Amino acid sequence: MLKRLPVSGRAALRKRGGADLDSMSREVFPNWGYQMRQSKLWEPLVKLLPPMLLFTLCLSSATQAIAGHKPPSCIDTPPYDTTPYKAERFVRVAPGVKLEVLDWGGSGKVMVLLTGSGDNAHVFDYFAFQFTNYFHVIGITRRGWLPSSQPKNGYDVETRAADDIKVLDALGIKKAVFVGHSTAGSELSNIAVKYPSYVDKLVYLDAADISERFTFPDVPDPFSLFTGTDTRSLFSFQASYARLTGVREPIAAICLSYRFDKDGRVADTSTPESIKSQLSAGTNIPANPPTNWADIKVPRLGIFAPPTAESKIPWYWYLSPADQAVFDERFPRLLRWYSDVISKFGEEHPESPKPVVYLLPGAPHYVYINNEAEVVRQMRNFLGISLAGN
């Protein structure tokens, strides 16, 4: 699941003055490509906290771990300091392990937003407010990704799902709508099977069952396409990231995902390679068998962005002719995999509600950012929220 640049490529990049991508290895977009971010940068977290919280706040030991060089934009640019959170808090889920929980406010039923493997909850800073008029919306940053704790183990699906439930218990939440992006799909499915009383409905945002995703040769990745010029600043990195992967995330999310050197260059990701490897192993077979959808007895919506033969993947057009040839040879197998997992998700089973599937062919992986309007409309229909009158 984790890819690195060849040694020669990393050396060449270092000569050009860019980030050391040996340590800045990226995580694969579990569904169709490559995720190029791990975890999120630092910030004096106390600045974000309101004077009073609803329960005692335990600051994570990770708060100290994320001190370091930060571009001015990571401190001053909205929404990092200005997003109107009801609270940011840390919940203890195991000895020495505390998870960041963002509370965007709202009232009524609870909606829990769970991120892809390289993100923290700040990636939902804009999207969350689509539902605060109808739900009390919170987001959880899983263990291993700052500013949550980074323990040495506990990255299997069952532990991660149990962490989410412990957060709900700490907050006194008995039932919620769970919305998961990418790798979080494995957590949604596990929660539905192991903790069904906590689940109202499930929403999978391009969160296909990836347990067998890497059982066949993969297409060439985009890592060699990043240059020292691309990593010279936060904004140049965002621009190249958007060009090659098709998404531009909230600055707060990017700032917590990466470490920067004293000159403001992107220097490294903020999650150790050992953690990324454990998460990958814990999400794939044999550790994580394919989902038995018949075991999930709650309503589920899957919004998927399968690549197409025409759209391919954003970075395809920047690959060398040789790499494009390899891509063209391997891509049909990836398309078949995607078709298979979507079909299995949509199968009807006795005693289970009929699943809802909505496709965004060729859309980038971050459907809730790039295709926000369509995603929100489909979610509102599924959740019983009228579209009339906004």
Give the secondary structure arrangement, pairings included.
Blueprint: E1 2-3, H1 7-15, E2 26-27, H2 62-65, H3 73-76, E3 87-94, E4 97-105, E5 110-114, E6 136-140, H4 157-170, E7 176-181, H5 184-194, E8 199-205, H6 234-245, H7 251-257, E9 258-260, E10 266-269, H8 273-283, E11 300-304, H9 321-346, E12 356-359, H10 367-370, H11 372-383
Helix pairs in contact: 4-5
Number of strands: 12
Biggest sheet strand order reads 3-4-6-5-7-8-11-12
Number of separate domains: 1
User: Which class do the helix and strand fractions yield?
Assistant: alpha/beta
Level-1 CATH class name: Alpha Beta
CATH superfamily: Alpha/Beta hydrolase fold, catalytic domain
How far is the first residue's CA from the last residue's CA? 41 Å
* Main beta sheet strand tally, sense and closure: 8 strands, mixed
Percent helix range: 25-40%
CATH topology: Rossmann fold
**Average pLDDT reading:** 83
What is the N-to-C order of secondary-structure elements (H for helix, E for strand)? Answer: EHEHHEEEEHEHEHHEEHEHEHH
Number of DSSP helices? Answer: 11
Q: Which regions have little confidence, pLDDT < 50, spanning 5+ residues?
A: 1-67, 76-80
Strand content: 15-25%
Q: Label the overall shape.
A: globular
**Rg (CA only):** 20 Å
